[in-house]
Specification:
This protein has one domain. The radius of gyration is 18 Å and the shape is elongated. It has a three-stranded antiparallel β-sheet. The termini are far apart. By secondary structure, it is mainly alpha-helical. Its main location: membrane.
């Protein structure tokens, strides 16, 4: 089962990457059985916390989002995560030949590497159930750091390249990931200006 890899990447990542490489799972099945499920954690938790729990500003004021606004933002976040993983997977495959790996016609290993490297970020979504901005930021920062290390660790195994090349390959991919992140932020600003921004209520 693909979801078993999520736990293996925290306990024995080297063996897990080798297993993922040998599976050579088709991107469609990987998306349906892994990414679609785990990527939903953060949007669902964010919806629950922002629409029903709220967060405190100052001493007494409790801020929440309206349910419609929370749903809209959660759906957009979910879509952005799915597109981001897909784009990163294709970037891994597209750069493969440059760094001595085999470029696949169907980028199974590239998408798998992107999806499984994002596992810590997917699971960090549970932290959103406790809507404290500084705590959420720390959790996601730690998750992003571990995700970057997982990608660096998995590149030579999954893509079949020397460890030395994985440093440059990983650096290029982190740059792509940052471009994707900035693009989603820019997209958020555009959508907010079109009337899809958050609507707050306070009590």
């Amino acid at each position: 089962m693909l979801l078993s890899h999520a736990f293996g990447l925290f306990t024995h990542p080297g063996q897990e990457w080798d297993s993922i490489r040998r599976e050579h799972e088709h991107p469609t099945r990987l998306y349906v059985a892994y990414v679609l499920i785990l990527a939903a954690i953060a949007p669902v938790c964010a919806y629950i916390s922002t629409a029903h729990f709220g967060w405190s500003v100052g001493n007494d004021r409790l801020i929440k989002l309206t349910e419609i606004s929370a749903v809209q933002l959660s759906v957009l976040t979910y879509a952005a995560m799915l597109v981001g993983v897909f784009a990163l997977g294709y970037a891994i495959n597209w750069m493969a030949r440059t760094y001595g790996a085999k470029e696949e016609y169907v980028p199974s290993n590239g998408v798998a590497l992107a999806a499984y490297s994002c596992t810590p970020l997917f699971l960090a979504g549970f932290a959103l159930l406790y809507p404290v901005p500084w705590l959420n930021a720390l959790v996601f920062l730690a998750a992003a750091g571990y995700g970057a290390w997982l990608m660096y660790d998995g590149l030579p195994i999954v893509m079949g390249i020397e460890k030395e090349r994985a440093v440059m390959y990983g650096g290029a991919l982190l740059t792509v990931a940052l471009v994707i992140l900035v693009s989603t932020r820019a997209g958020s600003v555009i959508l907010w200006n079109m009337g899809l921004g958050p609507v707050f209520i306070s009590s």
